[in-house]
Design brief:
The complex is a heterodimer of chains A (496) and B (451).
Chain A: H1 38-43, H2 59-71, H3 93-99, H4 102-105, H5 117-134, E1 138-140, H6 146-163, E2 170-174, H7 180-187, E3 191-195, H8 205-211, E4 216-222, H9 234-243, E5 247-251, H10 264-267, E6 271-273, E7 294-296, E8 308-311, E9 321-324, H11 341-377, E10 393-396, H12 398-402, H13 407-416, E11 423-424, E12 433-436, H14 444-463, H15 465-469, H16 482-487
Parallel strand pairs in A: 2-3, 2-4, 4-5, 5-6
Antiparallel strand pairs in A: 1-7, 6-7, 8-9, 10-12, 11-12
Chain B: H1 8-18, H2 23-26, H3 48-60, E1 69-70, H4 83-89, H5 92-95, H6 107-124, E2 128-129, H7 136-151, E3 155-159, H8 164-176, E4 180-184, E5 186-187, E6 190-191, H9 193-199, E7 203-210, H10 220-230, E8 233-238, E9 256-260, E10 276-280, E11 293-297, E12 303-307, H11 314-317, H12 330-367, E13 373-374, E14 383-387, H13 392-400, E15 404-405, E16 408-409, E17 420-424, H14 431-445
Parallel strand pairs in B: 1-15, 3-4, 3-7, 7-8, 8-9
Antiparallel strand pairs in B: 2-10, 5-6, 9-10, 11-12, 13-14, 14-17, 16-17
Helix pairs in contact in B: 4-12, 6-12, 7-8, 12-14
């Protein structure tokens, strides 16, 4: 394999293009047992005719390649990353170190409970802390992501209703819901029914009342919702759903605004999932690993995924901490082991570092920062739902659209100024949506810098729109052709 | 509060700009009667020094694979993780980035995923792979849903020799979708051909783990032929390391290959995070769940990468999406790409050869102990089942005191296998380790000892 044909057109070659036959990258231990005769041991017919074509690079070349790739990434250690509903807060470094302790990294999931008391106690105690923070009674850390928590939640809804004789058929979601909500409830065998938002950006309670019936299994809502407003009639909503025997599910994506302020369990929610990679500061890793614990009220606890971590101070079974596998009503397992344990370690360290007051400060400052930004940006962009916001708010680039500049263009132009873009085109009910969530870990100076850049981009949209529509120009590559990617599919590197 | 930069003065000024008098007023939309009545009852705050002391104490309450001689496996394997893998995974440009929604500012993540997809294709021999999934178990579950969508059938045939985690997670996913799951029993440790024949009719997919939970090679070619004639898709759950020596799933006609990628650069980590992967033929790409990265060009004709075919996904398609999956295991997939790049073609092969050699050396030595025998005769790759003259869990207890974890007690997962032990090897198991297991096991199974 040699250099790519047109090197100038390649920003960084793929690892395959960098490969050079015979280059060693790693040394294994000297084999200290007789070598294997593969044909004899595994059977000639079972063997692969040719070795898989893995790249061959020396260690320094591997490090350089991935370092150069890293340099092409925007990341939250560099600057503000105001993706709405994603809670891109600072990831504390001590938590990374704690999750790298050999005593956590080296625990095998098949080790006897007696050998991993530290790990099980961490799982148990983090579950207790999340229960306290949310007002739920029992929490399982097993779901490895938010969407997995939603699926577990919807399966619990189903199990609960089935136990009462009828699993019911539909789950109601607002039109502002994250896409995972309808996808998860569908996977759990339900039909999604959408309820519209009213003019204030909140669930239209009358419309909701009119659509509930004894086939309503649950109502699934994010609160504060994805427009960044608190559903102030939530108690009424809860009563409506409970009135027909349905359950109320909270998508905990926006829990950051509620820490220490409101406990969903006190509001009447029956269940919720948490996103440890949002609210509890564990890194997003460029798209995982996340963690999406599911919490429920007592009457649903029997349905949680098994095994459930438990504590017995009197050690009746000989151990203080172990897992309860004897859960006949459980929905089953949603992860091969106990969920994303190392992510749990980081969230646990985060909560201990903050303590009760620190958690409340997170919510207060997240909401303060969002309101400050909203106030400053309101003159520049249309604000479809005004009033105070919670931890995030949604602007529209509709005025800029008239100047030929879309929300996507604005997003791309921000990249040129060294900032990340907001979430765009979501929620779906806002045209040209720009959804902004600064989080509590941004300083006022950082927020002011964002305002300054947004001001420049708004001015450019009016005076020199081609600068915005032609963005980005300062990134490693300029605007990428997504249509071409979907049309001339190239998802696997092949030698040309 | 170390992570919140705002000072009291900042807050005061910002509140003034907003036009409210207090932080409290910002929460005016939250009805008073719904507010938390008391401060949260959680521990903390701890300083860094206090936190470290506490966490180290917790960590010290665990015995790790470094503290003992471990032969635990069964899906999660204790391989050496090269320093370079940890180094790259700890680069903030990778670990503090979000999902690559803004492609132009995320080329590092996108290209590394493209490379991961390509590496999975090279291992499995299939055309296309996704950007990863939660774990091998959920990947298998998603493969079943995909097969059902392709074939319009609702029955899944699952080999009972597949890992318990795969079988239980798949049941969780499928039961709600009203799908029928039939488990096919085994004969001699591998899928019983006769039982498969009796159950395959009308199946959307046959899911086989190869090598299976017992370490044995499944008769995949025969199973594939049965799938072909029944119109069922073959879903092969494969150990990626085995693909350095064994035929790739494409060779025996698997329509979908899935697997647990933990052995590609991840520590055992109490089983999480893990790394699911999934590959299929080009024809089925639009049914593939999860994220997919594709190459394209920018406005100046330079190559770049984007997430593609997003109309399959939940954020666009909502209730009609191919799956509800949103997050993948991006950072872990990156680690796998680094690991495979570092080992390279020869190193990866050598690793698989070493593991095979160690497993067979261990099997010969252990099966020579009087009263102990290999449970099954079939060919095996990295692990094997021993039948002991007494319950495996007792043997585990007895050896645990001596710092040896001899393997997994099969009785946990198969009721009729209480005397069976699954012994797994990696390149980290030395000859000395194996020899000490052999003598320790010999001592505890000797007639008259503790029985």
């Amino acid at each position: 394999m040699s250099e790519p044909r047109d090197r100038a057109k390649v920003v960084e070659p793929t690892v395959f293009e960098l490969s050079h036959p015979g280059r060693p990258g790693y040394r294994l231990p000297q084999l200290d047992v007789p070598a294997a005769d593969l044909a004899e041991l595994l059977g000639e017919k079972n063997l692969r005719a040719e070795l898989p074509e893995l790249p061959e690079l020396s260690e320094p070349e591997v490090v350089r390649h991935f370092t150069r790739l890293a340099e092409m990434n925007f990341h939250v250690d560099r600057a503000m990353y105001p993706l709405g509903s994603c809670t891109m807060k600072y990831n504390p470094k001590i938590n990374e170190e704690m999750a790298a302790l050999p005593g956590f990294v080296g625990v095998h999931p098949e080790a006897d409970a007696a050998e991993c008391q530290g790990a099980i106690s961490l799982i148990y105690n983090l579950g207790r802390m999340l229960a306290e923070i949310s007002g739920m009674d029992e929490v399982s850390l097993q779901p490895p992501a938010g969407a997995s928590g939603e699926l577990a939640g919807m399966l619990i809804v189903r199990a609960h209703h089935a136990h009462n004789g009828n699993p019911r058929s539909k789950v109601i979601v607002p039109d502002t819901a994250h896409g995972t909500n309808p996808a998860s409830l569908t996977l759990a065998g339900y039909r999604a029914v959408e309820v519209a938002s009213g003019p204030d950006g909140r669930t239209d309670v009358d419309a909701l009342s009119a659509m509930v019936d004894d086939e309503t299994a649950a109502f699934m809502i994010t609160n504060p919702n994805t427009l960044g407003v608190f559903e102030d009639r939530i108690a009424e909503i809860v009563d409506i759903i409970h009135g027909v025997g349905g359950l109320v599910y909270l998508d905990g994506a926006n829990l950051n605004a509620s820490l220490g302020i409101v406990r969903p369990g006190d509001v009447g929610f029956d269940m919720m999932h948490f996103n440890l990679h949002k609210t509890f500061s564990t890194p997003h890793g460029g798209g995982g690993p996340g963690s999406g614990p599911i919490g429920v009220k007592d009457f649903l606890a029997d349905y949680l995924p098994y095994p459930v971590a438990r504590r017995d101070e009197r050690k009746a079974r000989g151990l203080e901490f172990d897992f309860d596998y004897d859960r006949p009503k459980s929905i089953g397992k949603v992860h091969a082991a106990y969920g994303n344990f190392l992510v749990a370690v980081k969230a646990y360290a985060y909560i201990l570092t903050l303590g009760p007051e620190g958690l409340r400060r997170v919510a207060e400052n997240a909401v303060l920062n969002a309101n400050y930004l909203q106030k400053k940006l309101e003159p520049l962009f249309e604000l479809p739902f005004d009033g105070l916001c919670q931890h995030e708010f949604v602007l529209s680039a509709s005025r800029q659209k008239e100047q030929g500049v879309t929300a996507l263009d604005v997003a791309k132009r921000l990249l040129d100024y060294g900032l990340h873009a907001p979430t765009v085109y979501f929620p779906l009910i806002v045209k040209e949506a720009l959804m902004i969530e600064p989080t509590e870990t941004e300083s006022r100076a950082s927020l002011d810098r964002f305002v300054e850049v947004m001001t420049t981009v708004a001015e450019e949209s009016a005076s020199t729109p081609e600068l915005v529509t032609g963005a980005p120009t300062e990134t490693p590559v300029s605007r990428l052709d997504e249509r071409r990617a979907a049309k001339d599919l190239d998802v696997t590197w092949e030698k040309s | 509060m170390p992570y919140v930069p705002n000072t009291d003065r900042d807050r005061k000024e910002m509140l003034r700009e907003i036009g409210v008098g207090s932080v409290e007023e910002l929460f005016a939309d939250v009805p008073q009667d719904l507010r938390a009545k008391a401060e949260l009852d959680v521990p903390g705050p701890l300083s860094e020094a206090e936190l470290v002391r506490h966490m180290r104490r917790l960590a010290s309450m665990n015995r790790t694979t470094d503290d003992v001689v471990s032969f635990l496996g069964g899906g999660v394997y204790d391989h050496t993780v090269p320093a370079v893998v940890r180094y790259v995974m700890s680069m903030p440009q990778f670990y503090t980035a979000y999902t690559p929604y803004q492609a132009e500012a995320s080329q590092g993540t996108l290209q590394s995923i493209y490379e991961f997809q390509s590496l999975i294709c090279r291992l499995t021999g299939l055309d296309v792979a996704n950007a990863s999934m939660y774990d091998g178990a959920s990947a298998a579950a998603e493969a079943c849903l995909m097969a059902s969508a392709v074939t319009k059938r609702r029955k899944i045939v699952l080999a009972r020799t597949a890992n318990h985690a795969l079988r239980t997670v798949a049941s969780t996913y499928l039961e709600a979708s009203d799908m029928e799951i039939v488990e096919v029993p085994s004969l001699g440790g591998v899928t019983d051909a006769g039982a498969l024949d009796a159950n395959i009719e009308g199946a959307a997919a046959v899911v086989v783990q190869h090598p299976n939970f017992f370490g044995l090679l499944e008769p995949v070619e025969a199973i594939s032929a049965k799938c072909e004639s029944a119109g069922a898709m073959l879903v092969a759950s494969v150990d990626p390391l085995s693909l350095a020596v064994l035929k790739p799933p494409s060779d025996y006609g698997a329509a979908i290959a899935v697997g647990e990628g933990q052995s590609l650069g991840s520590p055992v980590a109490y089983g999480g995070p893990l790394l699911g992967f999934m590959a299929t033929t080009r024809k089925h790409i639009r049914r593939l769940p999860g994220r997919i990265v594709g190459a394209t060009t920018d406005t100046e004709g330079r190559r770049g990468f984007v997430m593609t075919l997003q109309t399959r996904e939940q954020h666009i398609r909502r209730d009609k999406a191919t799956s509800n999956i949103c997050t993948n295991e991006g950072l872990v997939a990156l680690g796998a790409a680094v690991h495979l790049s570092l080992l390279g073609k020869k190193g990866f092969r050598e690793l698989a050869e070493q593991v095979t050699a160690k497993a067979h050396y261990a099997a010969r030595a252990l099966a020579a102990i009087p009263g102990v025998r290999k449970k099954f005769d079939g060919a095996f790759f990295r692990e094997f089942v021993l039948e002991l003259p007494k319950p495996a869990h007792k043997v585990k207890q007895e050896l645990g005191g001596a710092g040896i974890w001899p393997g997994i007690s099969c009785g946990c997962y198969y009721q009729d296998m209480n005397d069976c032990l699954l012994v797994s090897l990696t390149e980290r198991s030395t000859r000395d380790d194996i020899d000490s297991l052999t003598s320790a096991l010999e001592a505890v199974v000797r007639p008259g000892v503790n029985s």
